[in-house]
Amino acid sequence: MPTTLPPLALTLGDPAGIGPELACAAWLERGAAQLAPFFVVGSISVLAGAARTRGWDLPLLAIGEPADAAGCFGDVLPVLDIAGLDYAPGAPSKAGAELAFQSLEIAAGLVRGGAASALVTAPVAKSELAAVGFSHPGQTEYVAERCGIAAHNAVMMLAGPSLRVVPITVHAALAEVPRLLTAELIRARTAIAAAALVRDFGIERPRIAVAGLNPHAGENGRFGREEIDTIAPAVAQLRAEGIDASGPLAADGMFHAEARAHYDLAVCMYHDQALIPLKALDFDHGVNVTLGLPIVRTSPDHGTAFAIAGTGRARVGPTLAAIRMAGDCAARRAAA
């Protein structure tokens, strides 16, 4: 990432979860992981407590503005200190949820305004946020709204070293998926993903494999007509628009090594169809990327993990991957 770009903004996440200690761990790994400069929007007291719990003598510095982070990042972890709070791992609270919400709000605004080059969001607990007035289904929808993008035009992609996947439907009951799937939804979300692969990932002509919904991709209507009536027309429209899409394909044959060599992105019809193979292949390196936004936004592909916060068991791999991917995508946008 060019040093002339603004630093990345990393949110604190829920301060009772594993976000604070992973932010500290990421800074400690900054050189080996070749991370772009970043700063944390949150609380020095929480970060200091998280570092002490892990036995780290971590230098922290309160900064006045994001531009201050680049010059000191090599020596200290820069923090935009917005609130004092005691570190209480595994014990979520109203004050902690308010801090998580405030961290997200400020960080998103800084990136939207150009003071930071990308947004990396640490995990939050949706139920805790809801209790303090957060009305969105998740951070993705909130960030999309802050960017002036309709939630349905913000596409979730999960990416790891071995696989990239986009689920067309996300947090929906499996019984509702056939009703929610439409040819236009599949076409629109796949087109957004294809454009993002070009812009943010430098793939000149992305190859996209589109999964079927039913076993054996419906087997010519024997096991359901969604492939015939909905998915195949969407694929045909994508191809007519110049997108290299293929399918519908039988999902059970899409994710072995030889099959993955023939596409850059797998478009799946529902949440688990996408996330099971991604987590099986790249559990410690999975990144949640929001496509279709005017800003770069990534997040490690895991939750708050309250049960292991402060125990030293949280692994920093996904956070490192999310920060690295945010920096890479921001650099590609700046170079375009």
Summarize the structure.
The protein has 336 residues and is α/β, with parallel strands linked by helices. Helices cover 39% and strands 15% of the residues. It has helices at 19-28, 44-53, 68-72, 94-112, 126-130, 139-146, 177-180, 183-201, 226-240, 257-260, 271-282, 317-335; strands at 8-11, 38-42, 60-62, 77-81, 119-120, 155-159, 164-167, 207-211, 244-249, 265-268, 287-291, 297-300.
Taking the alpha carbons of the first and last residues, their distance comes to 13 Å
Q: What is Rg? A: 20 Å
- By CATH reckoning, the class of the largest domain would read Alpha Beta
Shape: globular
Task: Walk me through what this model shows.
This protein has 336 residues and is of the alpha/beta class. It has two domains: 187 residues, Isopropylmalate Dehydrogenase (3-Layer(aba) Sandwich); 125 residues, Isopropylmalate Dehydrogenase, CATH 3.40.718.10. Helix content is 39%, strand content 15%. It has twelve helices and twelve strands. It has a twelve-stranded mixed beta sheet, sandwiched between helices. Helix 1 crosses helix 2 and helix 8 crosses helix 9. The longest helix is centred in the N-terminal third of the chain and has 19 residues. It is globular. It starts with 7 loop residues before the first strand and ends with a helix. The model has no long low-confidence stretch (mean pLDDT 96).
